[in-house]
């Protein structure tokens, strides 16, 4: 089935999701939080990890809607990039309403196609919570004669990072994380994963993203997720659950940092082009 090149500009949503403190805690547990970060895992004085907003939006239903609008082959879909601007802290319960649109479709030839969508999310209290830009890479839909995606350059500082943060996932991590909304079979079904060329189900890119979000907050705005203003990244390589990984953080100026996540044993980059912006903590 050919790509629908008329998809850009077509509306997506509104999509609504009601959530409670239990959904907030379930997400935090799914991205590795525990007793050492009780503010995300216990309803007393509960705070919400900013990346929860993405898990609540970029789930299987949302990706399915993009696939339906564009006619991309869902069997070849991978999450390419995620850019998030945070406007207000996320309350611990309520209703999220998201509206958006497909903005661009690019042709990468034999490598596939790239679909970009942008969307805004509002809380039922009236606050605009975040603006997302989502890039979907479809391995089987290239060579349709469309425009090539624009090239971009990204460089990390030529020095050691300011922080190394180890991430610890379990063999069952995707089974827990998927309960927050992304139920794509690639992360649970061994036969489906093998049919796509993987040894076994892989980690959700946004699950590893959530581990990175925790690491960034812990080292740059400890205990104050409400200070996070922006978080961008590109998903580079798959990661198998249980594999050791770490997030490398380079502070580049007041309220600014770059980051990436690497496989601790092989050195392979799992997530790259990370940008993190935040309101500096108050000093006494």
Count of helical segments?
Answer: 6
Distance between the termini: 61 Å
Q: What level of helicity do the residues show?
A: 10-25%
CATH class: Alpha Beta
SSE succession: EHHHEEEEEHHHEEEE
Tertiary shape: globular
Strand residue percentage: 25-35%
CATH topology (fold) name:
Thiol Ester Dehydrase, Chain A
**What is the SS-derived class?**
alpha+beta
The number of domains: 1
Using the 3D structure, state the CATH architecture: Roll
Low-pLDDT windows of residues:
none
The main pleated sheet reads as: 10 strands, antiparallel
Strand order of the largest sheet: 1-3-4-5-2-7-10-9-8-6
Mean pLDDT: 91
| Rg calc | 18 Å
Number of strands: 10
**CATH H level, superfamily name:** Hotdog Thioesterase
What are its keywords?
284 residues, alpha+beta, Thiol Ester Dehydrase, Chain A, ten-stranded antiparallel beta sheet, 6 helices, globular
Overview of this structure, please?
This protein has about 280 residues and is α+β, with helices and mostly antiparallel strands. The protein has one domain (about 10-280): Hotdog Thioesterase (Thiol Ester Dehydrase, Chain A, Roll), CATH 3.10.129.10. It has helices at about 20-30, 50-55, 60-70, 175, 190-195, 205-220; strands at about 10-20, 75-85, 95-105, 115-125, 130-140, 165, 230-235, 245-255, 255-265, 270-280. It has a ten-stranded antiparallel beta sheet. Strand 4 (about 115-125) and strand 5 form a beta hairpin. It starts with 10 loop residues before the first strand and ends in a 6-residue tail after the last strand. The model has no long low-confidence stretch (mean pLDDT about 90).
